[in-house]
Structures are given as C-alpha cells and as structure tokens.
Amino acid sequence: MSNSQQAEALRTAMAEAAAEIDQALDLLIPPSEGPEARLFDAMRHAAIGGGKRLRGFLVLEGARQFGVGRDSALRAAAAIEMLHAYSLVHDDLPCMDDDDLRRGKPTVHKAFDEATAVLAGDALQANAFHALAEPETHADPAVRAELCRCLARAAGPRGMCGGQMLDMLAEAAAEPLEEAEIGRLQTLKTGKLIEFAAEAGAILGKAPPQLRQALCSYGRDLGAAFQIADDLLDATASPEETGKRTGKDAAAGKATLVGLLGLPRAQAQAETLAAQAASHLDALGDRADLLRALAAYAIARRN
C-alpha cells in the first residue's frame, strides 16, 4: 500500500472510529433529567463531538492487533476519551490556561460556569474508571484492574497531573527550562496518556509481554512527536484550523521545544520521533499499517 493509500485508509478509519466512540460516549454519558441534568449536559458538551479521537483510535487499533471484541475496545476507548476530556476542561479554566475555545466551540466554563466545569471534569474522570471497571469492558477482573491501574498511573502525579504542575512552574521560573527538562514535562503532561492508549489494546488482548512493550514504546515516541507537532501548530496555525486559540504558548512564556530549538529543528525532531515510533511496530507486521500511518499523520496534521 502506497503512502497516499495508507493516509486515505487512516482518514477513513479515524472518521469511523470517531463516530463509534461518540456513540459509546452517548451511552456512557446519557442525557439526564432532574437537578443533575446540568452536570450531564456539561459532561456531554466536553466529551461528545469534535476532537481527533487519537487516544481512542489508538485503543481500538491496539485491540484489533489481538482480536479483541469491538464493544469491549470501544468501552476502553470511550473511557480514555472521557479522561482526556476531563483534563481539557480543567486545563481551560481561568486558573490554568484560561481558554474560551475548544474543538471549535466554547469551553465548558464559558458555556456553563466555572463551578460546573470543575464538577464536569471531576465527573468525567470518575466515569472513565467506572466504565473500565464494569464487566462489560472485559470478562476478566484482572484485566479490568490492570486497565484502571495503568490509566491512574498515566493520569496522576507521575503522569498528566504532574506534567501540568511542571508546566505551571516553568511559566514562573527565573531561567528557561533546558531541552531534557522540557522533554520530561511533555512526556508527563501529554505522553503518558498516549502511551497508555497504545498499551490498552494489548492489556485487553492479554498480549505477550514483548508485544505489549512494543506498543508502549510506540505510544511513548508517538506522544513526544504529537506534542511537538501541537507546539508547532500553536506557533504557525490559525484558530480556524485548530479549533482553539493559537499563539498562546509564546504569549504565556510556556516551555516548549519550539521555543527552545526554533521551528526547523523542532520539526526535524518530531519527524525523527515519528519514524522511531513506527519502527517499534515491526513485530506486528502489516496489520499495524494504520498505526504506522498514524505516526506520519501526527506530525503532518493542521489541527
């Protein structure tokens, strides 16, 4: 299959996966009546519709490598998308990045209010673990426990939340961070969740340790390339292209490899990481072609 054919196959697969994930989210975050309806509305506003669904797609494609049932994989994919949505809701708050646009629509605290946004984020996080822990996700309770354990690790103080703390500290630092420090910040803030998304399918499929490690390594390098590409987009793309405010990293004095290395060197590093990510998939053969195409897409996208 040529590169253009792979890219077209990826676009089709990602669009189909996004629609399926939205259907799963619609079931896991149903419309509600009564006093708590406003909370459900805010959760649905944050989680359903829009977004690349890259993390959910990674779960689905990883699970496909090992013959995992689609319904089981979709529940895990929806769970990680809920966890990711929670992080975006809180990241957009005035006390964090203070953004008013996300996925081309008002952020939750703008569409509702700050208190509702905090609760919606909290509820999305709780709902993610609830979905993973239910028997419908996998018949084996040990698999469900492992999914919860690994997602908690990826999202917690040694993962996404820890990375966000480092990001906030970097803004107030007297000296700019060095390259290795920025790399660690981005690994925690963005990379750990993408790494888990790549690993989740192997957990669901009870994959051999070496294949599970291959997907972990793929996810680690993909996450690093994806974050550099995100920083490049913030520096070069328009809000219309990305669906969110751009130019904010430089304005806020955020620590990024783009700011440290400049556009050409940062782009070259992203390309190296994407190629490295794809190389980890050799043991999976041709059935991992969409994951290889995803590595190329991660650094070529414009949103």
UniProtKB/TrEMBL annotation:
Keyword Oxidoreductase: no
Keywords annotated in UniProt: Isoprene biosynthesis, Magnesium, Metal-binding, Transferase
Cofactor(s) the protein needs: Mg(2+)
Keyword check for Metal-binding: yes
InterPro entries: Isoprenoid_synthase_dom_sf, Polyprenyl_synt, Polyprenyl_synt_CS, Prenyl_diphosphate_synthase
Transmembrane regions listed in the UniProt entry: none
Signal peptide: none
Matching PROSITE patterns: POLYPRENYL_SYNTHASE_1, POLYPRENYL_SYNTHASE_2
Pfam families: polyprenyl_synt (PF00348)
Stated family: Belongs to the FPP/GGPP synthase family.
Protein's recorded name: Polyprenyl synthetase family protein
